[in-house]
Amino acid sequence: MVFTIAAAIGLSSAAPASAAKDSRYAAIVIDxxxxxxxxxxxxxxxxxxxxxxxxxxxxxxxxxLSKGRIKKDSKVVFxxxxxxxxxxxxxxxxxGSITVEAxxxxxxxxxxxxxxxxxxxxxxxxxxxxxxMMTAKARSLGMKGTVFRNANGLPNTAQFTTARDMAKLGxxxxxxxxxxxxxxxTRSFAFGRQRIANHNRLLGRVKGVDGIKTGYTxxxxxxxxxxxxxxxxxxxxxxxxxxxxxxxxxxMAELIKTYMPQASRRGGGDLIAKTDTPMPEVKTASVAxxxxxxxxxxxxxxxxxxxxxxxxxxxxxxxxxEVVTAAVPAPKPTIGLAxxxxxxxxxxxxxxANIPFQIRKPKDRAPAAEAVEQAYAEPxxxxxALDQMKTAxxxxxxxxxxxxxxxxxxxxxxxxxxxxxxxxxLADASAYTVPFEKGGVTYFRARFAGFxxxxxxxxxxxxLKKKKIACYAVAQ
Length: 476
Prior knowledge:
Blueprint: E1 26-31, E2 37-41, H1 53-66, E3 75-77, H2 80-83, E4 97-99, H3 100-109, H4 113-124, H5 127-140, H6 163-176, H7 178-181, E5 186-191, E6 194-197, E7 209-217, E8 221-230, E9 233-242, H8 245-259, E10 335-337, E11 398-405, H9 408-421, E12 430-438, E13 441-451, H10 454-466, E14 472-475
Antiparallel strand pairs: 1-2, 1-9, 3-4, 5-6, 5-10, 7-8, 8-9, 11-13, 11-14, 12-13
Helix pairs in contact: 1-4, 3-4, 4-5
GO molecular function, one term: serine-type D-Ala-D-Ala carboxypeptidase activity
Protein name: D-alanyl-D-alanine carboxypeptidase
Domain SPOR: 392-476
């Protein structure tokens, strides 16, 4: 039996005046009570999902939990492949493990690539098989325009989605697993000696927002899926291809403000209809993993560097900082939730794990046939720099940042290690740290200065990336 969301027939409303011009842009707003499409812009055009991919990883994790195949305290062991994923990550070494619950929280807050791969390997037996499970599940949910190739959303030209499909997945997470959906409103959680904050800046900023997920790669732009509840009204909205995290968030806030008053206060009856084509059951596979810690391979970014999951753009540097911490044993996480989400849906018993559904398109909008950009284009190659470390004065001009840390000493140690790895590149630069506060805690940015222009800083950063050292350029 197939489950479909019966959508009200209606025309999509005109987009707000400030709609984005970027070719990667796409958006949709769905009335979650009725399934009606309130706004649509290139909603059926192919886009790269970036870390929105982790929504499906979490869906399959919730499914495994609900069926008893895994438990919240089950151990997720990190293979060499998982431990070697590039940042953002939580930094568990190969052979180490965390609980399923900690892995869930690390995906929702830090968007951890390593934990996402480890979960995929645990549930699917291999990341490749898990990706096939993800795509099969997408089809069973009516996501016809989506193909998954990995568990975390790292760049892959064969992995794509649409804004409409991401809205379907957002609604599925809310309706099918209300017992786990509250995780998406987690503001932060304790992991070892660090507290990891959620990248979703709309939590607590826009009334009624209770999740869901952010994402970024160079090819995708800045992505966001939001769930909003205000009284009896309920929306799921998607913005893809934002030019920055701030502009993406502002666009989402604008869409919510515009369309929430148009949302229905009451559901249009049962949104779910049964089908006789359930998705076949896939058992959790066991994986042969190392029984001891193995160092992260040198061909990947420095193991202790945990950078911004959604990649920082220059204008957001102060807003989207992340903390660098060496991998530490992870106790059971302490969850800090926002006010408990008011899920105005039917009870969990009413929904099964394999509930496909479809959101009806506006009558006047045909699917667009827009080309997808090449994934993850990098800036032109080049050079960078180093000298003595100082915190007292901040050099003017352009700099490159390689890490942030709650310890000035650790930030300096990272600078020293970076300089030793690429001495020919950093021979003429100045290494320094810059303190900043976040959540009442002082952190330190680790930077190299001495670049005359943005181009020279980008070129320097590119040279570091060739050595697998993550960085970005910033004006002082």
